[in-house]
Design brief:
Elements: H1 2-19, E1 73-78, E2 92-98, E3 103-108, E4 114-120, E5 123-128, E6 136-141, E7 146-149, E8 155-159, E9 165-171, E10 179-180, H2 181-186, H3 194-200
Antiparallel strand pairs: 1-2, 2-9, 3-8, 3-10, 4-7, 4-9, 5-6, 5-8
Length: about 200
């Protein structure tokens, strides 16, 4: 009887250790082949003999985004669409420019946790915990501050300073996805029934 419990104990320890580590890609690089007609979860790899330095390079993060839109912000993504070499590596980046009073309205990344670093300006940021509590976790940030938005939770940023503001955010997915809450709920095609929305809101 004792050997059986020992075996079960060792199996439990082994499983907990195995689940405690990040996944490991099957190869060290898998540069995306955007021209492939094969559909997979991720992108098909380019022939390694055709990989070039530019597959791992993006230029332009220093450029100021045009914030003259209804929300007063502009997000410049750097994901697998911009750097083909990010394929299978599980990371991406964005630069966000904000006009005075500009916002990145409530949204969610269904596939990623986000870590935001303030480069310039002052922000109020926050996220809402999931049901049943739906509690707002919020903070005012200044230059050099870093804040984390857990994966899947609705979150936002708003420039509360008097000048333009800039933030950089890293995400733990090559393609984190983004769902702007208001656009998804009120801008779906076809529309969600207005009587249903009236009941909910």
């Amino acid at each position: 009887m004792a050997p059986r419990f020992l075996l079960l104990g060792l199996l439990a320890i082994a499983l907990s250790l195995a689940l405690a580590f990040d996944y490991s890609p099957l190869q060290n690089i898998c540069v995306a082949n955007p021209n492939s007609l094969v559909l997979v979860n991720g992108l098909v790899c380019k022939d390694p003999k055709l990989v070039q330095c530019n597959d791992f390079l993006f230029r332009g993060l220093h450029l100021v985004g045009n914030t003259s839109n209804s929300v007063g912000s502009r997000v410049a993504p750097v994901n697998v669409a911009q750097i083909l070499g990010l394929n299978t590596l599980g990371i991406s980046l964005v630069r966000i420019n904000y006009a005075p009073c500009g916002t990145n309205p409530p949204y969610t990344h269904p596939c990623a946790t986000e870590i935001l670093t303030v480069l310039q300006g002052n922000f109020i940021v926050g996220f809402v915990t999931s049901n049943p509590e739906n509690r707002l976790i919020s903070k005012v940030l200044k230059k050099g501050d870093v804040f984390v938005f857990p994966a899947g939770l609705v979150h936002f940023q708003c420039n509360v300073g008097y000048g333009n503001a800039i933030a950089i955010a890293a995400l733990d997915s090559q393609n984190p996805g983004v769902i702007p809450i208001a656009n998804a709920v009120f801008g779906s095609k076809p529309d969600i029934a207005s009587d249903l929305l009236a009941k909910v809101f």
